[in-house]
Sequence to fold (295 residues):
Amino acid sequence: MKDLLKISFIICLVIVVYIFKDNISTFIMDNIIYRGSNKVLTYNEYYLNYDYNYVQNIDSRNVKNYQEVLNIFYTIINSGDDSYSFYCDYSNCLNDVKRLIADESKISNINNFVHPFNSFSTINIDISNDGKITVKNKKTYNDEEIIFIKTYIDTFITENIKDDTSTYDKIKLFHDHIINNTEYDVDKLENSYDAYAYNLLINNKAICGGYSDIMSIYLNELGIQNYKITSENHIWNLVNVDGTWYHIDMTWDDPVASDGKQYLIHNFFLITTNELHKLDSVEHNFNTNIYIEAK
Fold:
């Protein structure tokens, strides 16, 4: 009888260990190997609880395959935490991490799926030989810039968006407002590539990063799911309206005219990928293995 109880206890213990193996592994890493040196990941107000085909939010700190490496980087950047560590838990993990960070575009692509206020301007990744990876990043926007942008957008929403305004009109009103008050920065101001949306509002000039960031921030403020798409030389928005994904390219809807006049068009406003590529298949040629929702 005692032997049977022992066997039953061992079986139950094995089951419990298996179910909670990730938690146990993390506990050992944190409290024995690294002696509590790693803090819990925190999430700020700009964290987006969205999963995509390319990247998904992840709870475990112990990554087990390349997809989970992508997922943990997405989760860290998306959380808004400035510094966080995770562990490699499979044989080729360190090589996968090195392969990922060796291609700067892959990390930058992950930046497109998070709120612009949580996006990074620079990122530092430290890899230790015992499988600990520490990620530290510097945000694209500082607190002062965020307050300025939020105040601008909140004011626009208060003055222009009503309870019965349709999603289509909510987006179109802001699209038209920005284009009517902004021109493409043909001279590429020295600071055009820093804090894109802030400089758009300050200078009334922008390159594609400014147009796409300000639209993304606005859409997130309204709770409308979206992300940015990057091609080789361009960036624009993809937005989910009533379950369908559409492209918005405010840069190309704000053309630089030879007569010097300012024009507002809607050729690139809430269009499908087929419609987009009929208009332009060069500058808008994007990687469908990353931006899968836009296929």
In short: Confidence is low (pLDDT under 50) at residues 26-37. Residues 2-19 form the longest helix (18 residues). The longest strand covers residues 120-127. The two ends are 63 Å apart (CA to CA).
